[in-house]
Model the fold of this input.
Amino acid sequence: MKQEAAYLLFLKAGSPVEVRVGSLGLLSLPAGYYVYAGSAGGPGGVKARVGRHLRLARLKAGKVKWHIDYLLTDPKVAAFESWKIENHGRIECAVSKEIEKVSDLTVPGFGSSDCRLGCRGHLHYFRRDPRRAVKRLLAKLGFKTSKV
Done:
């Protein structure tokens, strides 16, 4: 049985982005940095899921399945790093709620349609590179990360 694990994607939008995201409609997002909290437990786990996301981000084409896919295929958005959060169980929502506390903005409803904890969203905006702040936050919560 495959263990479900959480991951974070770090994105950068070099200029403002307008993107239509499924049922969320047209979103206007400011230029800056974004952190997306996701989870994977199917075949291939986090490595396969993140690999799929990074292919979409690189090719700017492919099957759009999740909210994050709409953003990854936008030419103004680059995925520049991804982390697996070492854990035992589904912690995507708990981690997302903590990241929201240190972010500049959370995109309402984005990536949280299957949310179990009432998250506002799983995509968080930062004016500056968030990696150091997020790494500190996760360490404080007792989570270890590894690059994917």
